[in-house]
Amino acid sequence: MLNSGISVLFEGVNMQRLLLGLLVTLRVALIAVVISIVMGILIGIIRTSKNKLVQIPFRLYLELFRIIPILVWLFVIYYVIPANFDLNLSAEVVALIVFSLWGTAEMSDIVRGSIISLPKHQAESSKALGLSVAQMYRYVLIPQATKRSIPPMINLITRMIKTTALLTMIGVVEVIKVGQQIIEVNNLDHPTISFWIYGFVFLLYFVICFPLSRFSRRLERKWAT
Amino acid sequence: MKKYLVLLLAALTAVILAACGGSDSEEKAETSSEATSAIDAIKERGTLRVAVFSDKPPFGYVDANGENQGYDVVLAKRLAKDLLGDESKVEYVLTEAQARVDLLKSDKVDVVLANFTVTPERQEQVDFANPYMKVDIGIVSPNSASIESVEQLKGKKLIVTKGTTAEAFFMKNHPDIELVKYDQNTEAFEALKDGRGDAMAQDNALLFGWANENPDFSVALSTLGELDYIAPAVKKGNTELLEWLNTELEALGQEQFFHKAYDETLKPAFGENISADDVVVEGKVEE
């Protein structure tokens, strides 16, 4: 009886559908992660500025993405904007925009935090040695800050991958939605189906997120010495 | 710092409000031009965009081959055939219950065919065409202690799913009946099987399907007289498409299309004990 569910995984094109769903999940998450890392580092460095005029707009941007749930952002950009302005974006583009904006905001705070947390004398000594600002960042601050920002950064990336589950709400058919579709069709014939399908989805997420956290631990250990 | 933030937030709110207000007139102009050419726009695009469920068998679901199926989908295919000459010219937009109104408002789909019950609140936001299905609250109970009238429920426990019309109906009209509430249908049905309640109230169409799979139970009380209709919906103000749909639905009713669709999609799930007349509406409300 317990085994009856697993056969559904191999029925028709169910397996391909789940993997295609995973591909959608990964495509959105990874493109957004790359954009977030690049933009986040830039904005993070800018945000270490002590100029209030520079700080406040970025602070506002960060807080907007922290306070307002991602689901609300998705709804606003996918449903509300097209209803009020003549701008109709596809669900996946909306997903990319929201996830990149969110990731950039969070990433910039991680980068800013790790630069600021460096002892003040690091910057002061660089200047005393006659390094230019660019050189100071390039050779002194960024390498040390990177080390400190790896754990929260990996944390953010896995969070972004998992949060893609929200995308079903704007009609993106990602891995969890495919799973639900398969479960609902087979629920009556195979009562244990949800266990197998969600188990498989769990495995897929694990296969993606676990190596990331292992990788970060290895980097940390390597750089610790 | 705080003062700046407050100022900025205020400025931002003002900008957003201004933007929303300003776009109203634009939107109206846009919808009116749309209304004159809604059907032409669909023909030009070559596909009819229909919002359907992807996980609610037998109404709208995706089969093992990745194809959309179900009662709603049969109608979607027929609409595409009559409007565009080919039943494959449907672009299915898979939807969730909460997103149906927004999909129409934001012009992401032409028609919603997703088990969409006509309610006064929804009628303010979208336009419903003639119904093609009707639902009522039913009560399913074990054959050994069958519940055939609401009076029999006095002093007994009735299982309901939260947020359903069944829950609202009993809270409003029979506050004396003890309700046992669950978040999801699956849980509610499990509870009934375990005997944690004497009966369960839910949309009858759903109960028929379940009772068919569980021969120890039957829908001994299939209607409580709270009839609701399920109808296609279009964007508010899209009268051209709405009128076309109504004419089309009535024409389909003439040829008993929905009875055929019932036999094809719902009958296998609901079983023999239910007659199609309990569920389908042939393109317009019978007087």
Automatic annotation (TrEMBL), chain A:
SUPFAM superfamilies: MetI-like. One of its GO terms (cellular component) is ATP-binding cassette (ABC) transporter complex. The chain crosses the membrane at residues 20-46, 58-81, 195-213. Pfam families: BPD_transp_1. One of its GO terms (biological process) is amino acid transport. It is found in: Cell membrane. Keywords: Cell membrane, Membrane, Transmembrane, Transmembrane helix, Transport. Residues 22-216 form the ABC transmembrane type-1 domain. It is a multi-pass membrane protein. One of its GO terms (molecular function) is transmembrane transporter activity. Belongs to the binding-protein-dependent transport system permease family. This is Amino acid ABC transporter membrane protein 2 (PAAT family).
TrEMBL record, chain B:
Residues 1-18 form the signal peptide. InterPro entries: Bact_solute-bind_prot3 (IPR051455), Solute-binding_3/MltF_N (IPR001638). One of its GO terms (biological process) is amino acid transport. GO terms for cellular component: extracellular region; outer membrane-bounded periplasmic space. Transmembrane segments: none annotated. Keywords: Signal, Transport. Residues 47-269 form the Solute-binding protein family 3/N-terminal domain. SUPFAM superfamilies: Periplasmic binding protein-like II (SSF53850). Coiled coil: none annotated. It comes from the Bacteria. Belongs to the bacterial solute-binding protein 3 family. This is Amino acid ABC transporter substrate-binding protein (PAAT family). It comes from Ureibacillus xyleni.
